[in-house]
Amino acid sequence: MRVKAPQAAFGKLGDFAEVVQPGVGAVVKGNLAMLGLVISNPTLAGVDVEKDWWAIVFAEPRQQPVLVFDCMSGKGLGL
Q1: Cβ 18 vs Cβ 24: under 8 Å
Q2: Which residue range forms the structural domain that includes residue 44?
Q3: Does 66 reside within a domain?
Q4: Are the C-beta atoms of residues 11 and 63 closer than 8 Å to each other?
Q5: Alpha carbons 17 and 35: distance in angstroms, whole number
Q6: How many whole angstroms separate alpha carbon 79 and alpha carbon 72?
Q7: Residue 79: inside a domain, yes or no?
Q8: Which pLDDT score is estimated for 74?
Q9: What's the number of domains the chain is made of?
Q10: What is the number of H-type helices and E-type strands within the chain?
Q11: Is a pLDDT exceeding 60 seen at residue 1?
């Protein structure tokens, strides 16, 4: 899965939210840091939010799926 440039995406989403409900756009734009919780890096240390992120899930029968993120190099997982 590819997440296109999260900082730009949150900016556009915030602009859209502002049109739909004035005052909400800034809240949406301010929640970029919440993505850090999703990738188990709450401070986004070393993460480039201006480049695309990639995620892949490895699944095996009867085992917990493993989720891997590449959000630092901007080069993706070679997909």
Answers
A1: yes
A2: 2-70
A3: yes
A4: no
A5: 18
A6: 15
A7: no
A8: 47
A9: 1
A10: 3, 3
A11: yes
The whole-angstrom separation of Cα 47 and Cα 71 is 6
* 68 three-state secondary structure: strand
Q: What is the CA radius of gyration of the chain?
A: 15
Instruction: Give the residue from 41, 17, 43 showing the smallest Cα distance to 55.
Output: 41
Q: Which residues are registered as beta bridge partners of 68? A: 56
Tens digits of residue pLDDT in 36-46: 888 888 888 88
* Cα–Cα distance for residue pair 63/68, rounded to 1 Å: 15
The span from the CA of 67 to the CA of 41, in Å, is 13
* Contact between 71 and 53 (Cβ < 8 Å): yes
| In a domain? residue 75 | no
Alpha helices in the chain (DSSP H): 6-20, 25-29, 35-38
